[in-house]
Design brief:
CATH architecture of the domain at 6-161 and 195-221 and 272-276: 3-Layer(aba) Sandwich
CATH topology of the domain at 6-161 and 195-221 and 272-276: Rossmann fold
Order of helices and strands: HHEHEHEEEEHEHHEEHHE
Structural class: alpha/beta
Strand content: 25-35%
Radius of gyration: 19 Å
Distance between the termini: 30 Å
CATH superfamily of the domain at 6-161 and 195-221 and 272-276: Vaccinia Virus protein VP39
Mean pLDDT: 97
Number of helices: 9
Helix content: 25-40%
Number of strands: 10
Low-confidence stretches: none
CATH class of the domain at 6-161 and 195-221 and 272-276: Alpha Beta
């Protein structure tokens, strides 16, 4: 899977954080509430947004192991996390952060997740987490992750899994045709094999049940309005391009649609899932 543009990740971060399902997030917090320390693996970490969202609600001492296949994003994660923290100190194996009284040790790994051992026995995490990743992976890859995690009884927390819902206000006649084409594009190989796309949450929940997990699901939609015009414009441009790849004869019409829809309010559906034993 190729890396994402750091600018796009920065643009979406505040919306991602606001969209997280509060009930599911609270269940994560309460499940680990008695822990003085916690070890987490963050898959497809990007610039560390998932850490910045989750760490403030967890244990006083945390070790985050950030994994991504893009060294540029890992370098950016180190820089952004150092700015985010109250204080930061480089270490031989990563960076040590202080934030709101919490001590957070962050290590970094540049790895191809299609080849990497998903047991993470070398890290021994309490929680494996990912944000906006599982809709990009294949069912076969997700099965390997859930099976490996279940073997070690590791909790899982996946947020912002796209569920196929995209609605603009006011509606136009092209909206649903473009969404249907985009959702087909989301099932293409993103580097892990044929992607789950909008079926990711359903597939994840089924695998969790099969491997003996208890799990909780909650909606985490983006609601983009007047405060989010740059993100909305980038989003519709990307959707139109992907839809045009599926329907080349409509690519010009889809591009024109994107220009008209850049300022429209839009809801993009996601789901969050937490699983444990």
């Amino acid at each position: 899977m190729s890396g994402f543009d750091p600018g796009w990740l920065e643009l979406r971060e505040p919306v991602d954080h606001a969209a997280r399902n509060a009930a599911v997030a609270d269940r994560v917090r309460r499940y680990f509430a008695e822990r003085a320390s916690l070890t987490l693996v963050d898959l497809g970490c990007g610039t560390g947004s998932n850490l910045r969202a989750l760490a403030p609600s967890l244990a006083p001492r945390q070790h985050w192991h950030l994994v991504d296949g893009d060294p540029v994003l890992l370098d950016e994660a180190r820089r952004v996390l150092a700015r985010w923290a109250d204080h930061a100190q480089n270490a031989d194996d990563g960076i040590r952060l202080g934030k709101n009284g919490r001590h957070i040790h962050v290590s970094f790994e540049c790895a191809d997740l299609t080849r990497r051992d998903l047991h993470f026995a070398d890290i021994a995490p309490d929680l494996v987490t990912a944000a906006a990743l599982f809709d990009l992976v294949s069912e076969e890859w997700l099965e390997r992750l859930v099976a490996a995690s279940a073997e070690r009884r590791v909790s899982l927390y996946a947020v912002l899994n796209y569920d196929g819902i995209a609605r603009w206000q006011p509606e136009t006649s092209l909206d649903q045709r473009i969404v249907a084409a985009f959702n087909r594009h989301q099932r293409r190989d993103k580097g892990f094999g044929p992607a789950l796309g909008p079926a990711s949450s359903e597939a994840f929940a089924s695998l969790l049940s099969r491997h003996g997990y208890r799990h909780w699901v909650g909606d985490s939609p983006w609601h983009l309005g007047s405060d989010n015009r740059p993100l909305a414009a980038a989003l519709v441009a990307g959707i139109a391009t992907a839809a045009g790849d599926i329907e080349p004869d409509m690519a010009e019409a889809f591009a024109a649609w994107a220009g008209r829809r850049a300022g429209a309010d839009v809801t993009i559906g996601h789901q969050d899932i937490f699983a444990t034993f």
